[in-house]
Amino acid sequence: MMTKALKGTMAAAAGVALGLSGVAAAQAQDEEAGILAAGNVVIEDGGIQLYGEANGVGKQPHASMIALDLGDEDYRSVYCIQLEVDLEEQYLHEERPWEDVPVEDLPMVLGVLLVGYDGTNAGELLEEAGLASDDYGDVTQDQLAYAATQSAIWSLTDGWVIDPNDPTENDVADEIVPALQAYILEKAEPVDEPDLEPYFDVDDSQAKTEGTTVGPFTASTNVEAINFSQPEGATIVDENGEELTSLSDGTVFYVKFDEAKTSSVTLVTDTFTWTTPAGRTFVPVDAEGVDVEGQRLILAEEYTEEYNAEIEFEITVEEVPSESPKPQLPVTGSSLTTVAVTGGAVLLAGVVAMVLMRRRAARADWGSDT
How far apart are CA 175 and CA 333, in angstroms? Predict the structure, then answer.
């Protein structure tokens, strides 16, 4: 006598189709996947001139307020992370991982960004530091907050020391910028490099079949939640058999099939939310995408957007003799009814390389490693 059991090949059969809208969709259409985010440099404001020295040499840099343009004058604040290298405004700036950026102490730089000015919080930052005022004279809250954060970053990346006697070109800034820099550096703690891409992965190490129910699976993801509609031919449930409508990091779930047969399960999401993190680094590139010598930049502000995706799982049904012990796989000793994921994490990144900038990725594929 033979009975059917759901057998051990859970695979992402197709990949993750990600939805784009607006300008991002137009930019991604007909272009290859895999390029990281990129944007054009914009100097939004001349900022405040600083006085001091770097490595024993006197310097008078402007803490110019810089942004990367994502189109339609929608800007994201960035900072320079190389004091003695020129800013190459004429070049596109493309994202690179930290390991490809020759800058010291990036974990502490990111710590400074998370405490300091992100392009939106000047008033709150000055208030927290006890430096708020009703009158800033000829300078603005934003200029002061940006200058203090930039000066703090240069102190880490370039050995910059602001002049304690004549720190800036402005009397109000002379009082506030050094004090705010000191506050930011005191509060900052090192932070690891942020994820460049959103992902969704499944731990199936404990999964097995009970009738037509397969699991448990544990979701691993760096997005807030993936909301979905129930697939055809199966129901996604929790450990108590209750239907689930979203998966977040650490969620334990089961796939309950209508019947035991070869089948695919497709989770069609309503939305998922991905926050582009601060701390991503950018370098200038020429028309062929080759790095050129020039100021490296670091993203100062987070950016949140919602996306759509389809995630497909495939589970195979095999016939197993019911009157004999279940066969064992030779290496692991796992029963043939054990379910294993084929492929690595689902990278939800194609579209989300960075909405904040021009990109070419419209899809992200499952890996092929087991």
Answer: 70
